[in-house]
Amino acid sequence: MKNKPYIRCLGVSKTYYKGKSTVTPLNALDLEIDPGEFLALMGPSGSGKTTLLNLIAGIDNPTTGELWVGETPLHKLSPPELTRWRAGHCGYVFQLYHLVPILTAWENVELPLLLDRSLSAADRRRKVASALSLVGLDDRGDHRPSELSGGQEQRVAIARAIVANPKLIVADEPTGDLDRQSATQILALLSRLCSEHGKTIVMVTHDPRAAGAANRILHLEKGQLVTEPEAVLTH
Q1: pLDDT over 90 for what percent of the chain?
Q2: Measured on CA atoms in the order 125, 152, 142, 105, is the torsion positive or negative?
Q3: Residues 200, 168: contact at Cβ < 8 Å?
Q4: What is the DSSP string of 11-36?
């Protein structure tokens, strides 16, 4: 029996209003993503990839349509409710890492946990240590971003994204600023988070090589999914 989709987009559109003009990067999009799936979204600039990613991550609301993650109707949540939901359910990985330069790797990873007042200092230490270990940076916790390579910075960013143990990870061009070797390591880490830890991953990329790490590739153009080509990959 097929699993119930973890993410469901039903007629999702997003329109931005700029003075008297409008921009609609997503238009009546339908999409289902299974739990534990690694999905790559590809398409030209302006096709709606990052807009879709931000909606799935609870950063913004759709203008019309329904968007469900698990049993949560994100389209019905207010901005403060989305913020609370995102803190516990979604980790975001950015192309340019977005680490705080004056903080150590440990402190950067700990940041999301400071929002949860129910956690003790000991709980935070345990979670940060576990996240840094998972990304292979046990020995870099006291290093600041300027003392790390690009690949190490991105691994710190991934540790920060998973430290609260969310089921969902969204990644916007996570290898776009890395050399090939570092990119390969990051993609292998994302694949392991999916296959071994059951994370659902949605990744935007322009790089076919990066997309090849995913279980499925979908293409967007002008705010809609393109039926051809679509690739389903098995590992």
Answers
A1: 76
A2: negative
A3: yes
A4: EEEEEEEETTEEEEEEEEEEEEE-TT
What is the per-residue pLDDT for 1? 55
Q: What single letter denotes the amino acid at residue 226?
A: V
| Global pTM value | 0.90
Q: Token pair of 143, please?
A: 């290093």
What would the pLDDT profile of 7-48 be if each residue is shown by its tens digit? 999 999 999 888 888 889 999 999 999 999 999 999 888 888
Segment among 69-73, 160-164, 177-181 with least mean pLDDT: 177-181
Q: Give the chain's domains with CATH numbers.
A: 7-232 (3.40.50.300)
Q: How far apart are CA 131 and CA 161, in angstroms?
A: 9
Q: What is the CA radius of gyration of the chain?
A: 18
Tokens representing residue 174 in the block: 């996570």
| Count of Cβ atoms closer than 10 Å to residue 89 Cβ | 18
3-state secondary structure of 4: coil
Length of the chain: 235
Token couple for 163: 């430290």
Angle at 172 (CA atoms; ends 21, 153), nearest 5 degrees: 135
For 79, phi then psi, to 5°, come to -55, -45
